[in-house]
Amino acid sequence: MNLRVWLLLLGAVAIMSFAAMVLVVVPAALLTEVKPSPGLEPYTASEASGRGVYIREGCMYCHSQQVRDTTITTDEARGWGRPSVPGDYVYDAPHQLGTMRTGPDLMNVGARLPDRRWQLLHLYQPRAVVPWSIMPSFPYLFEVKAQAGPDDEVVTVPPAWAPESGVVVAGPEAVALVDYLLSLDHTQPLAPTEATPRAR
Ligand code: HEC
Fold first, then answer.
1. Which of 7, 116, 183, 200 could serve as a FRET partner for 107 with CA atoms 20 to 30 Å apart?
2. Is the Cβ–Cβ distance between 66 and 97 less than 8 Å?
């Protein structure tokens, strides 16, 4: 091979190595030092399994989990919580940042809507609580039983949406999913050093 080909190859390798350093190696090294945000606990077994349901059902395609900075958006003014920081995601692999906001951001939905019964009914039939909602219903996460057992979480469904007979009880996946949703609370204030540079 002549010199020009060698130079071309060398240039290509140099560019690829530089890109790998800047885009992969350096960010990975920086992220190893990230500490959990104040008050953030690892997921319980049920919350973690609910997170699996969240991923499987594709909630991320309509809901983000990232409150963007106040200097560039109105996220905080909408009541979605303080701007998110890397420490909010230490227990999330893969994270559910999302790109679409067909529905509201869910980063702090557990703090905003802490009522289990509301969450269960909303998953069973969103239009039973928000008449204009375009969110899909998830009735297959629930069971219709003739009579509720002692450990069952009964969902009080308004007559318009209730089955003809029997009671609606939350299935194990609905229970886990609501446990996960209620765990989404990143509202604890940050120490000044942890806030994003823009927010300071
Ligand atoms: C096709 C888009 C779409 C999908 C998929 C979707 N949602 Fe929604 N979601 C919405 C819309 C629109 C709203 C606002 C209206 C309402 O409250 O129903 C909403 C509202 C919500 C709210 C209330 C948030 C608030 O601040 O009022 C929760 C909680 C929620 N969704 C959870 C979920 C979960 C969990 C899943 C997956 C199992 C899911 N969503 C899937 C569109 C969607």
1. 200
2. yes
Which residue in this structure is represented by tokens 């809901």? 63
* Residue 145 CB coordination number (10 Å): 14
CA–centroid distance, 139 to ligand 1, in Å, is 14
pLDDT at 192: 76
For the segment 90-147, what is each residue's pLDDT rounded down to a tens digit?
999 999 999 999 999 999 999 999 999 999 999 999 999 999 999 999 999 999 999 9
CA–CA distance, 194 with 35 (Å, rounded to integer): 10
For 32, left (φ over 0), alpha (ψ -120 to 50), or beta? Answer: alpha
Looking at residue 97, its amino acid is: L
Residue ID of nearest Cα to ligand 1 atom 36: 59
Which atom of ligand 1 is the closest one to the Cα of 134?
A: 12
67/199 Cα distance (integer angstroms): 12
Q: Is 52 in the pocket of ligand 1 (CB under 6 A)?
A: no
pLDDT, position 1: 76
Asked whether 63 lines ligand 1 (CB < 6 A), one says yes
Measured in whole angstroms, the distance separating CA 192 from the mean position of its chain's CA atoms is: 25
Atom of ligand 1 at shortest range from CA of 126: 18
